[in-house]
Amino acid sequence: MEIDCKEMTVREINRALKEAVRNGENKIILKNPGAKHYIGAGLIGKVEIYAKGSLGFFAGTMFHGPKMIIEKNAGWFAGDNMTDGFIEIKGNAGDGVGQGMYGGTIIVRKNAGARTGEIMKNGTIIIGGDSDFMTGLFMMGGRIVVLGNLKTMAGESMVKGAIYVKGDVTSLGKNAKIVEIDEEDEEWLKEILKKYNFPSTTGKFRKIVPIRKRFVYGVSEEG
């Protein structure tokens, strides 16, 4: 099934998507998406969506189940608060990829903006390039994998979860420390990277984790 988004409002597009899922469609192609915002908001169901272009802010927000492939770029907060499903962005993504996500997987093939995985609770985010400042801000669970570099204040005020990084780390945030990966990490990394067609060598990866499980602002000593 194809939906031509060129002359449609965001509300009309999302209504068409939900109706298509109710009617049993399992593959939907979005033509001329024009970087419109909130595409797929609140969509529930096992359906594959292919956006033939870029999407704007909050692509796939509050997803539960769908698979979305974005052939170009995505704006801020792709996969915001998603609970289950899969989003792949073949280009770059803006700030807040996976903000508050509870589950599922988000792939960004190129670079991501700031605050990737902010307050995420669970799920997996993989960034093929760099991720900007405060990646993992207030992170409460889940895993972030960055094959490029991490900018300033990585892991700021994180509580749980892990950030795996292959490139350089400009600086760490409060309550974050870098440790070596163990055998379990290495096995998981190889499996997940191979699954999503990234280089699966793990030799340069390190892991950013919380210093304290119950972080109190202003206290950063280990213990």
Question: Would you kindly provide a written description of the structure presented here, covering whatever features stand out?
Answer:
- The chain is an alpha/beta fold and 223 residues long.
- 12% of the residues lie in helices and 25% in strands.
- The protein is built from two helices and eleven strands.
- Helix 1 (10-22) links the parallel strand 1 (2-4) and strand 2 (27-31).
User: How are the strands ordered across the major sheet?
Assistant: 1-2-3-4-5-6-7-8-9-11-10
* Biggest sheet details: 11 strands, mixed
The quaternary structure here is single chain
Order of helices and strands: EHEEEEEEEEEHE
Q: What percent of residues are in strands?
A: 25-35%
Helicity level, as a percent range? 10-25%
Mean pLDDT: 95
What is the CA-CA span between the terminal residues? Answer: 56 Å
Instruction: Give the overall silhouette.
Output: elongated
Q: Ranges with pLDDT <50 over ≥5 residues?
A: none
Structural class: alpha/beta
- Give the helix tally: 2
- In angstroms, what is the radius of gyration? 18 Å
DSSP strand tally? 11
Would you kindly provide a brief summary of this structure?
The chain has 223 residues and is α/β, with parallel strands linked by helices. The protein has helices at 10-22, 183-195, and strands spanning 2-4, 27-31, 48-51, 64-70, 84-89, 105-108, 124-127, 140-146, 160-165, 176-180, 206-210.
Q: Which labels suit this protein?
A:
223 residues, alpha/beta, eleven-stranded mixed sheet, 2 helices, 11 strands
